[in-house]
Amino acid sequence: MYPDTNPPPAPIDYLNQIAPQPQKPGINRRALVVIVLGIGLVLALVIGFMAFVTSSTDGPKKSAVVLTARMQAMKTVAEASQPKIKSSSLRGVNRSLIIFLTNANRDITAPLAANGIEMKKLDKAIVAKEQADSITANLEDARLNAMFDDTYAREMSFKLATVALLMEEISSTTKSKSMKDFLTTTSSNLQPIKQQLDEFNKTAR
Questions:
Q1: Collapsing DSSP states into helix, strand and coil, what is residue 86?
Q2: pLDDT over threshold 80, residue 134
Q3: How far apart are CA 17 and CA 15, in angstroms?
Q4: Range name among 11-15, 121-125, 129-133, 196-200 with the lowest pLDDT average
């Protein structure tokens, strides 16, 4: 008998061993990078949105505190300056200014409260900065040099201009109706007094 030249069939286990092994499923690196970048972009958008919301609400609130502190400081200066003013016409304008500031400081209380700000709990740093303004030192120098009236009218006119600009800024950013109403009324009451101070400055030149 001739030897059988055909080899016996390979066992199934052996065939399985030599067969190409399927690759285990894994995460594609490129897909992983895209996912990470996508998550980072979403987080950045969320953080940016939160920052925008915070600034859009805190900005007008801080400006309202600055406005209040400035008007309070101006009222203090106006009251202290009344006996020092020589001109009878300027004393009359200053009386109107004191009344204006008294009413404004009273009327802003409700809009502040509507925006979560208590009049008695204003930011101490802002209040101190407004009270320490150089106008007081300038007025004292002017008094010593017999130039109090002219300096006072010029300084207070400038201060009223800054108040008007600050009110415009708040009005354009705040969403509070009560604050907008206050600013509209107060701005219209401010203009005649500033105009009188400007007229006094023109005649004093």
A1: coil
A2: no
A3: 5
A4: 11-15
The tokens describing 58, both together, are 């805190």
Number of domains in the chain: 1
- Give 97-121 pLDDT, tens digit per residue: 999 999 999 999 999 999 999 988 8
Task: Output Rg (C-alpha) for the chain, integer angstroms.
Answer: 37
| Lowest mean per-residue pLDDT among 12-21, 97-106, 118-127 | 12-21
Within-domain flag for 27: no
Q: What CATH number has the domain bearing residue 184?
A: 1.20.1260
> Distance between CA atoms of 66 and 12, rounded to whole angstroms?
87
Find the distance separating the first CA and the last CA of the chain, reported in whole Å. 140
Does residue 130 contact residue 70 with C-beta atoms inside 8 Å? yes
In terms of residue numbers, what domain contains 143?
57-204
DSSP 3-state assignment of 1?
coil
3-class DSSP state of 197? helix
